[in-house]
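Lay summary. Proteins are chains of building blocks that fold into shapes, and those shapes determine what they do. In this project we predict the shape from the chain. Here is one chain we studied, written as its sequence of building blocks.
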Amino acid sequence: MSIGAGRAEIARYKNTTGACSYAAFHQSFYAYLTNPARLARRRIKVHSSKRDSQRISICSDLGRNSLLNREEDMKKSLVALALFGAFAATAQAQSSVQIYGTIDAGLGKATGSTTAVTKRDNNKLGFKGTEDLGNGLKAIFQLEIRYESDTGTVENTSGVNSRPLFQGQSRVGLQGDFGTVRLGRGLTAYQEVSTSFEPWSGMPTPAGFQTDLTVAGYTSDPLSAPGNSRNRFSNAVFYNTPVFNGFQLNATVAAKEANNNSAVPARAPGNSVTFASGNRAVAANVAPTSTPYSISATYTSTGFAAMAAYERNGLQAKLWSVAASVNPIPELKVMLSIQHQKDDDFKIINTGTKSWVLGANYDVGPGKIRAGYGQKTPDGVVKTKQASLGYDYNLSKRTYVYADISNKKAAVADSINYNVAKSVNYVGIGVHHNF
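And here is the predicted shape, written in a compact code that computers can read:
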């Protein structure tokens, strides 16, 4: 067959074999032309009608097989898609993991220091999730890394100061009709609820009150490693009851495990560290002599909230605290907290410290005004007084800029003149973003 005749054959069969695609015919025609037996018998003439019927049969078979294969593939694809959708829906319903965090950076200046890049809030990167175990039972976990936005390093891990990777918290537990039980490291039952009654919401800015006056100078974990955050328990069990008509009970109990504390030498009263109280010696990496624990009770309703708490740390220091907040109008929240610390086992004399903080938050359009005033009265030491004012301006639901100003009068740290108050002013501005 000549090339011209072959082309004519192709054109003719394209028009006469609707069941066969051009590609299928081309495949069969090429196979026919290159068949060795045909080439050996190319002098033998084959009747045109027989050859046509053979080719049409080949195309029909190829077309039918192609359609059957496509139909089978379609069925398999639909089954796979249905199974994938079912598994995805099941996984979606049974478990979820959330990545979240904050980044905060600004400029701050305090009396006697130069302007520096600072932060108003802790920077954190967190992971939390739940898994539905059925019958109302859930498995939960939360991990939280803290870092410095100005250097990109993990928070406070230089020199002798060492904080764990999951400084914020590392807890896993179960949640159900019985409440929530978690194990690991996290804020104590007192520390976790006290931030709701502090005008800066517990943020560790110098303008805030959480790290000093709100806790009457108390620390939850004095036996942790140097530089560690001391408002948490490690090696602990955490329990929260369900909320009953606005009431909830919370408890944290820590194991009597050593946590790499540094040795503390004994000091007589009248020194530059523990001031008028003096202190007894503490050995390095010592376990608590009795179990540290923290309990709190909260009540929340529309326009009113209250809290009462008691905590004992690894050195047997004890803290009582009560607090309340009211909303006389929806935009205004007024709050008051009162604390009393007693540290008889560590300090020698002058073992008590009392404090109180009065604060307010007022929402104005896209902004929030923060204000607070408080006092702390350590036995035998000059009274601490602090007044602060701040403003947040929301740029979006997740981003705001802020400005703070404060004045604090207190005894100078590491000084023997603890009966003389030094005035320190602080000014800070910055931006905060939640993600």
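What the prediction tells us: Confidence is low (pLDDT under 50) at residues 9-26, 42-64, 86-92.
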